[in-house]
Amino acid sequence: DEYAKGERPDYQTPYSWMLALKKPVIGAINGACVGLGFTYSLYQDIRIASDKARMGLIFVQRGLAIEHGSSWMLPRIVGVGRAMELAVTGRLIDAKEALEIGLVNRVVPHEKLMETAREVAGQIASKCSPLGVSQAKKMIYEHLFTDLATAIKEDDASMRRMTKSEDFAEGVKAFIEKRAPRFKGK
Fold first, then answer.
1. Per-residue H/E/C for 76-124
2. Residue 32 backbone dihedrals phi, psi, to 5 degrees
3. What secondary structure letter does DSSP report for 16?
4. What spatial distance separates the first Cα and last Cα of the chain, rounded to whole Å?
5. Residue 64 and residue 68: Cα distance in Å, rounded?
6. Are 47 and 38 in contact (CB under 8 A)?
7. Residue 25: left (phi > 0), alpha (psi -120 to 50), or beta?
8. Integer Cα distance of 83 and 91 in angstroms
9. Residue ranges of the alpha helices (H) in 43-79?
10. Other beta carbons within 10 Å of 107
11. pTM here?
12. Do the Cβ atoms of 167 and 131 come closer than 8 Å?
């Protein structure tokens, strides 16, 4: 089961559940990404935008405000000042600006968007340990709720546990043998 049942209540909403998935969620933004679409994009782990994409929180221009945890997610992605500007102006930004402020990870030509998203997913699937990927994702999101000392302690404990995993042994063996790893997620 991909859901983190019994985990943080923060992940048990219709929008934040993506944070609890063990696999990365890759968003491909191909055009207008406003309102609820913008909100959903904030919960994606990697956002790739077409050079034709436009994004924004238009709610204030319609007599509304920010929604569904965007007030928590957006400042963590782009910083408080940029989040505030986007939220209180309702201004749309293009893909280039979204990349500059860290809202998206990459901008690619429109016709290459899905190909690029699939390439990123393929690289993760073929080169990375599913155990390592899921643990890295979990730790990054969990540690948004904690202090540095706790994050260090938990990261180090996780690393000690993972050095005993089959995936770690396979990763080292594949490196020594100069071949692609065959991870099992164990």
1. HHHCHHHHHHHHHHCCCEEHHHHHHCCCCCEEECHHHHHHHHHHHHHHH
2. -70, 125
3. G
4. 16
5. 12
6. no
7. beta
8. 11
9. 70-78
10. 23
11. 0.89
12. yes
Q: Tens digits of per-residue pLDDT, 119-176?
A: 999 999 999 999 999 999 999 999 999 999 999 999 999 999 999 999 999 999 999 9
How far is the CA of 127 from the CAs of 50, 76, 145, 171, in angstroms?
25, 28, 29, 9
Region label for 50, one of left (φ > 0), alpha (ψ between -120 and 50) or beta (otherwise): beta
Query: Residue 7: pLDDT above 80?
Result: no
The SS3 assignment for 62 reads: helix
In three-state secondary structure terms, 128 is coil
Q: Which of 57, 65, 76 has the alpha carbon at shortest distance from 16?
A: 76
Number of Cβ within a 10 Å radius of residue 40: 17
Would you say 41 and 55 are in contact if contact means Cβ atoms under 8 Å apart?
A: yes
Strand partners, 56: 34
106, two tokens: 């990459």
Residues 110 and 30: beta-carbon distance below 8 Å:
yes
- The H-or-E segment that residue 125 falls in is helix 113-127
For the CA atoms of 151, 98, 117, 119, the dihedral, rounded to the nearest 10 degrees, stands at: -80
Backbone angles phi, psi at 93, to 5 degrees: -120, 150
